[in-house]
Specification:
5-stranded parallel β-sheet; 3-stranded antiparallel β-sheet; about 30% strand; 5 helices; Rossmann fold; about 30% helix; alpha/beta
């Protein structure tokens, strides 16, 4: 396994908060309100981001937006490479997706394969009227023709680098950092 070290902090807690509020405003402006709108976060950090976006939308517009959590584990095209016994969590979407305007939410957009898997999973749940994509970070290097409708920050990276999003709920930190392979060759 390759060990990584922090190269640069690109967002702190305040930058994350401002970015969530800005994306919430953009969603409301584009959708012209919350009618028929729902958010679906990709487990794990996408789900946290979706909850934060829903709170920001409610603060701005005064109306609650339904939020669901999507587990894409069984839809991944690299499932055999992820782990010998991958852990599958429940998809928690407590509403009918048919005819809704969904915003799919994830923390980092990279190759596009996670989003493809999420779209496949959503199609098994029904037929939304539209699906848009909101991401905190777009780091480039797409392998599939997928783009985000709402982007918090574009962070060009090298292929060997990683973007690490840290939320207090999981990581006891609130930041986005670029990580690179450790100088010692990274064997761990």
């Amino acid at each position: 396994m390759i060990a990584f070290r922090e190269k640069a902090k690109v967002m702190d807690a305040e930058a994350l908060r401002r970015t969530v509020v800005r994306i919430a405003h953009e969603i409301l402006e584009h959708r012209k309100g919350t009618g028929q709108l729902a958010l679906v976060g990709i487990r794990t950090r996408g789900a946290i981001l979706a909850q934060r976006l829903a709170k920001a939308i409610e603060t701005i517009d005064g109306r609650a937006v339904p939020v669901g959590i999507l587990d894409i584990t069984l839809y991944r095209d690299d499932l055999s490479r992820v782990a010998p016994n991958p852990v599958v969590h429940a998809t928690e979407i407590p509403f009918d997706v048919d005819d809704l305007h969904l915003v799919l939410v994830d923390d980092v957009l990279f190759t596009g394969r996670t989003i493809r898997a999420a779209l496949n999973a959503l199609s098994d749940l029904g037929r939304p009227k539209t699906i848009q994509l909101a991401v905190l970070v777009d780091r480039g290097h797409r392998e599939l023709p997928i783009r985000a409708d709402y982007v918090g920050k574009n962070i060009p990276t090298h292929l060997r680098e990683h973007i690490e999003v840290r939320f207090n709920e999981l990581d006891e930190a609130e930041e986005v950092v670029i990580e690179e392979p450790a100088a010692n060759g990274g064997a761990a």
